[in-house]
Design brief:
Elements (H helix, E strand, L loop, with lengths): L1 E7 L7 H11 L2 E7 L1 H6 L1 H8 L7 H14 L5 E2 L4 H5 L3 H10 L6 H14 L18 H6 L4 H13 L5 H4 L7 H7 L2 H5 L24 H7 E2 L14 H5 L10
Length: 254
C-alpha cells in the first residue's frame, strides 16, 4: 500500500513528518510529492480547467497536483483520509465551537487560554477556517441554530472582504438581505432535526448553492473514493475493473 502526500517548502504548511509517521504506523510505503510555492502559479490554470469551478485559494491546485502524481503512478482510484477532521475535530473551528458552545463544567480562564491557543497555533487558518475581522452574519442564523458556527462566521468574513471587488450595480439589489439566514431556512436537515453545535459545524452544501470551493473538494471527488464513508470499505484497490467504472470525463488529463 502506498501513502501519497504533498510536501511544502513553507514550514507552516508542511505536514510531511506527520504523514511519514502515519505511513510507518500503517505499514505503507511513504510517497512524498514535493511542491514549491511557484508550482501553485504554474498549475493554477490547469486546476481551474479540471475542477470546472472557481476557487479562492491554492488548495485545489495542490490537490490537482496530488491527483496527477497518483495517476502518473498508475492508479485511478484512491482511498483518502478526508473525513477524519470531521470525526476527530481536527479543524480549528471545530475546537473553537466546542469551547464556545459546550461550556458545562469548563473553567472560564482555561477556556479563554485554549481559545487563544487555537488562534496562535493555526495562523494559516485565520480568515479561512477561523473568523478574522468583520462579518455580516445576519440575525436569523443564531435564531435557527441557537449559535453562530465558526466556519459560517469565517465564510461571512471572507464574503464581506470580497464586496470591494464587486460592482455597485451588482451589490445594490442584495443590500440588507440576510443571505445566510435565507439559505439555512431552506435546508430540510435543520427543519427536521434538533441539531447541537457539534452536528452542524460542517454542513456541506451542494454545488449549485456553494459555487466557490475552498478546499479542493471538486478535485477530490473526481479522482477519489473520499470521506469517512470509505472507512466502511474493506478493499483499497487499483484493480482495472474497479478503476474502469470510475473515470469521469473531466479527469482524462490527470
Amino acid at each position: 500500500m502506498r501513502a501519497y502526500t504533498l510536501t511544502f517548502d513553507g514550514r507552516q504548511y508542511d505536514e510531511s513528518a506527520i504523514a511519514r509517521e502515519m505511513a510507518s504506523h500503517a505499514g505503507a510505503i511513504y510517497q512524498p510529492i514535493a511542491m514549491k510555492q511557484a508550482d501553485l502559479a504554474t498549475n493554477f490554470r490547469a486546476a481551474v480547467i479540471q475542477s470546472e469551478i472557481p476557487f479562492i485559494n491554492g488548495h485545489t491546485v495542490a490537490k490537482y497536483m496530488l491527483s496527477r502524481a497518483v495517476r502518473e503512478s498508475g492508479y485511478k482510484v484512491v482511498l483518502t483520509g478526508e473525513g477524519s477532521d470531521e470525526i476527530l475535530a481536527g479543524y480549528p473551528h471545530f475546537r473553537r465551537d466546542m469551547l464556545l458552545h459546550h461550556t458545562a463544567g469548563q473553567d472560564p480562564e482555561e477556556t479563554a487560554r485554549l481559545l487563544q491557543q487555537i488562534v496562535e497555533t493555526n495562523q494559516v487558518s485565520r480568515g479561512l477556517l477561523l473568523p478574522e475581522g468583520d462579518a455580516d452574519i445576519g440575525a436569523l442564523c443564531a435564531t435557527l441554530l441557537g449559535f453562530v458556527p465558526s466556519w459560517l462566521e469565517a465564510m461571512s468574513g471572507t464574503a464581506t472582504r470580497m464586496h470591494g471587488l464587486m460592482r455597485d450595480d451588482f451589490m445594490e439589489p442584495h443590500r440588507g438581505t440576510d443571505v445566510i439566514g435565507t439559505l439555512l431556512s431552506s435546508l430540510e436537515v435543520l427543519a427536521e432535526n434538533d441539531l447541537n453545535a457539534i452536528q452542524v459545524m460542517d454542513i456541506e452544501l451542494p454545488n449549485p448553492v456553494r459555487p466557490i470551493r475552498g478546499l479542493g473538494r471538486r478535485i477530490e471527488r473526481l479522482t477519489q473514493i473520499t470521506r469517512a464513508h470509505a472507512a466502511c470499505m474493506n478493499v483499497v484497490t487499483s484493480d482495472a475493473t474497479v478503476s474502469a467504472t470510475f473515470q469521469p470525463p473531466t479527469c482524462r488529463s490527470l
